[in-house]
Amino acid sequence: VFPSQDPIQQMMPPWIYNDSLVPETTMTPTGIDTAKLYPILMSSGLPRETLGQIWALANRTTPGKLTKEELYAVLAMIAVTQMTLSLISKGITGAGRRSSIFQPFDILELF
């Protein structure tokens, strides 16, 4: 009657749940390989300025390099920003207001 596995887990790549499966080519001794990460971040569809703000918020350890934890923070903020933009494009904002102008990181008022 019930599916044997969580449908969300089926959609996720295995390395999400097991760090040993993360491709080694993305990691360097000082953090994530920025050259390989850049096209992934750009594929988010977010403006470069917004991605820069997200990077600046997360990047605390080594300027210009992300640790694995900082990368996870960047990816989470990108996901929340994409979701927020989707809600705004549908006219859904906090307190039932309609908004035509999105200010980056005004997303907290939605929650």
Summed up:
With 111 residues, the protein is mainly alpha-helical. The chain is built from 4 helices and 2 strands.
Short descriptors:
111 residues; mainly alpha; two-stranded antiparallel sheet; 42% helix; disordered C terminus
Instruction: Round the mean pLDDT to the nearest integer and report it.
Output: 75
Helix content: 40-55%
Number of helices: 4
Strand content: under 5%
Low-confidence stretches: 98-102, 107-111
Strand order, main sheet: write it out.
1-2
Shape, please?
A: globular
Structural class: mainly alpha
Largest sheet: 2 strands, antiparallel
| Distance N to C terminus | 35 Å
The total tally of domains equals: 1
Rg, alpha carbons = 17 Å
Tally of strands: 2
H and E string:
HEEHHH
Summarize the structure in words:
The protein has 111 residues and is mainly alpha-helical. The protein is built from four helices and two strands. It has a two-stranded antiparallel ribbon with strand order 1-2. β1 and β2 form a beta hairpin. α3 (48-58) packs across α4. It is globular.
Topology, pairings included?
Blueprint (H helix, E strand, L loop, with lengths): L6 H5 L15 E2 L2 E2 L1 H9 L5 H11 L9 H22 L22
Antiparallel strand pairs: 1-2
Protein name: EH domain-containing protein
Pfam family, one: EH
Organism: Nothoprocta perdicaria
